[in-house]
Amino acid sequence: MIELKSADEIGRMAVAGQFVGELLAELSGVAAVGVNLMDLEHHARRRIEERGAESCYWDYAPSFGRGPFRNVLCLSVNDAVLHGLPHDYVLRDGDLLSIDMAVGIDGWVADSALSVIVGTPDPADRKLIECTEVALAAGIAAAQPGGRLGDISAAIGEVAHSYGYGVNGEFGGHGIGRTMHEAPHVANSGRPRRGMRLDPGLTIAIEPWFCRSTDKIKFDPDGWTIRSADGSRTAHSEHTIAITPTGPQVLTSRPAADATTTDPSRKPATAS
User: What residues bind a divalent metal cation 2, as annotated (predicted)?
Assistant: First the structure.
């Protein structure tokens, strides 16, 4: 069942979205050469607790994965793209890091992700991240009231193919609202003017992610971390949006200072 949200409910989702956007931008600034992934995880835990928010990831237990997820972030490095488990790993110069998070505030949820390059950027990594961001913008622009879900999927897939990347069909975006994952599934490739009608009140997370040289994936033994099947680098971008009578509204916008490459001279954070 798909629940259309009222303007007031969308406004309440936007409160969670603002926090998610601000914290993601903050985390992208903390990520630097010499920072341990667990420093980022503990930083996010502290900020979520201070805000009185609830992580949607903690104790999440879908059909895949081994046991409940016991972290508030997904941190995926280099060839890892989705559901990366925070662990004892110190970021190195040139690493490509994807950060994904979802939180609830007063019963309403928002979900967002970004990818950044730590230290010295590889032009091929810049291109890959750029593709996910351009595809996300195209998907959002296609999310017009009265349109079809396939319009979003087709817009994302068209951008991916124009950059020369394939699209994996196993994981994509999703409905969101009272919980992190609701109907409908939002594929990253599809046919325009097909699928369900985009009615005002529909709230979805759009999340293009691509691998540099394959559309195939594999799982780590932990059952969570998803990597490119050929070991090539990956990137991921995501926003929660609402369909309104006047067009799409991004609920997880980030401060304008957000950038895809972190400062290699920034001092590492420490875990609390």
Answer: 111, 174, 207, 238
Who's near 8: CB < 8 A, 6+ residues apart?
Answer: none
Tell me the per-residue pLDDT of 208-224, one tens digit each, with 9 for 90 and over. Answer: 999 999 999 999 999 99
Rounded to 10 deg, the angle between the 37-51 and 7-30 helix axes is 140
Q: Please calculate the CA angle 145-14-42 and round it to the nearest 5 degrees.
A: 135
Dist CA 149 CA 1 (whole Å): 16
**Reduced to 3 states, what is the DSSP secondary structure of residue 51?**
helix
* Among the four given CATH numbers 3.10.20.600, 3.40.50.280, 3.20.20.190, 3.90.230.10, the one describing domain 7-255: 3.90.230.10
pLDDT digits (tens, 9 = 90+) for 226-267: 999 999 999 999 999 999 999 999 999 998 754 444 433 333
Give the separation between CA 189 and CA 168, rounded to whole angstroms: 8
Q: Show binding-site residues.
A: 83, 100, 111, 174, 181, 207, 238
Tokens of 238: 């995501």
Q: Which residues are annotated as a binding site for a divalent metal cation?
A: 100, 111, 174, 207, 238
User: Which amino acids are annotated as binding site for substrate, given as ranges?
Assistant: 83, 181
What letter represents residue 266's amino acid? R
Helix or strand run (H / E) with residue 28? helix 7-30
